[in-house]
Write a structure and sequence with these properties.
By secondary structure, the protein is of the alpha+beta class. It has helices at residues 16-25, 62-68, 81-84, 89-98, 104-120, 149-162, 193-201, 208-214, 219-232, 253-267, 272-276, 284-298, 300-303, 309-329, 332-346, 351-372, 376-389, 394-410, 414-430, 437-446, 450-463, 468-494; strands spanning 8-10, 30-36, 39-46, 49-55, 129-133, 175-178, 235-238. The protein folds into four domains: 8-145, no CATH class; 151-238, no CATH class; 253-346, Orthogonal Bundle (Helix Hairpins); 351-493, Tetratricopeptide repeat domain (Serine Threonine Protein Phosphatase 5, Tetratricopeptide repeat, Alpha Horseshoe), CATH 1.25.40. The protein has 22 helices and seven strands. A hairpin with a 2-residue loop joins strand 3 and strand 4 (49-55). Helix 10 crosses helix 14 (309-329).
Amino acid sequence: MSPPSRNVGTLQSRSLTDILLWIKSNAYTGVVVLAHEQIKKSILVESGKIVAVRSNVAQETLVQILLNSQKIQSNDLKSILDKIENKEAYHQGEELMKAGLIDATTLYQTIQLQMEMRVLEIFDWPDGKFGIVPDFPEQTIKVPMDKSIPELLFRGLLKKHGKDPNGSKNAGQQVPVKNAIEGITDRELKLLGKEQGVYRSINGVLSVEHLAKQQSMTNAQVVPILQAFVELGLVKMIEPVKEAVKIVEIPKPTNLIGDLKKRFEDNRKKDFYEILGVGKKADEKEIKSAYFELAKKYHPDRISQQLSGDDKKYVEDYFSLITQAHNTLSNANLRKEYEASLAVENTGITVQQAEKILQSEMLFQKSLLMLKKSHYDEVIKFMQEAISMYDEEPEYKLVLGWAMFRDGSLKKNAVSQKKGKDLVKFAMEKNPRLQGYYYLGMIEKSEGRDDAALKHFEKAVEQNANHTDAANEIRVIAMKGSKKESKGILGMFGKKK
C-alpha cells in the first residue's frame, strides 16, 4: 500500500478504503478530515487504530442515537440540557450517567455504535474531499474502536456495493481469484457464515454464478461480498477462458508500427470512451466488444514476435492503454469515479486550485475545533488564511464573522464586533441554508433586541430540530417575557387608591 501522494485530494482519486488501509499498515497517528457538501467529518487515529470520530451530522450525536434506540426519552433530558450542550459525546454520557439515565455499559456501547455509524455513512457519499493532518488535537477523549479498520471497511464496502442495482449485472461468468497480499487477512474481517463460505469457496475455477449456487445464494447476494474483497485487495476478478478468437489478418510490421505510433500519440489526448471508439452511453457489452476487436489486432502475444525491442514497447504501451480503458469502463464503480474525474477536469480547476480548496477545508476543520474551545484568535487566524486560498465558501465567512464578533465582545473592540456582525449577515444572505441563525440570534440578543433574536433562534430550531443551544435561548427569552408579564399584573394590584 503506497502512501498518499499528497495529504489532500478527492475521494475519487484516493478512496477511503485506500487511505485507512495505509493508516493501518503504517501505524499512523493523526486526523483524516473528510467533507461532502456541508457534511464534515474527522477520523482520529492513533498508531493505526481509530480512537474517535467527529461529525456535524445531527442524527449522529450521542443523544440522538440514544433517543432513536429508545435508551432514553426526550422528557428525561429537560433537567440536564444545560449540562450536556456543547460537550463531547463522552462528557455528555457522563452527565447522563450522573442523572441515572444510562449506565457505563450503555455509554460505551453507544459510543462504539456512534463511531461506526459516522464512518459507514461516508460510504454513501457520491463524492467528497479528504485531508490528512499529522497533528492530533489536544484533550481528545480517546475510545479505541472495537472493530479493526479491515472489519469496518468490509462492512462499509458491503453497504456500498449492496446498494448498486447494476453491481451483479454481467458478473456471473467472471471468476474470482485470491490474491496473496501482506498486511490484511480474511480473519481480520470477522466474516459471518455465508461470507466465510464464499471466501473459502474461491478457488480460481468457479465462476460467480457457480459459486453462488454452491452457497445457495443469488448472484446479487454474492457479488457485493466479492466486490468488497476486491477493494480490500484479497481477491481479483478475471474473465473466463474463452474459445480462441478467430484469426484475423495481421498488418505487416512496417504498417503496424506506424499505425500504432499514431494511435498511441493520438489516444493519449483522448478519454477512455474515445480510445475504445464507443459513445458515452455505451453499455458493458458494447465496451467489451470494442475492446476485443482492438485486442484481436494489437495483442502483444500475437504480434510481438515479429517486432524488434523498441517496437515491442509501442505494442505493449498501446495495449496497456486500451486495457486500462476497458477495465475502467466495464466496472460500474470505476466508471462512475472516472466520469466524476472528467467532470472535475471540465470545470477548468487546476491541480493547484484544487489543492488550495482542500487546504482551506482543513483549516476550516481546525477552526471548528478551536471554536469549541473559545480560542477565537486562533479561529480568526485559520479562517483568514482559508479565505485567502478559497474565497467562494460563505460558511468560512460565517465562522470568521462569529469568531470576530465574540473576540471583539470579549476585548471590548467595537470595530471587530461590527466587522464580525457584517460578515455573519453577508454569509447568511449568500446561503440562507447555513446554520448561522443561532449566531444572528446571539448578536441581536447581545444588543438588547430579544424579539429579533427570538425569530433567529426559532429559525435555527426549524432548520435543525436538535439545536439545543437555540432551543435553550428560546426558553430563556420566554421565561423573561413571563416574568415581565407577572410583574405587570402584580403592579396593577399593588397600586394605592
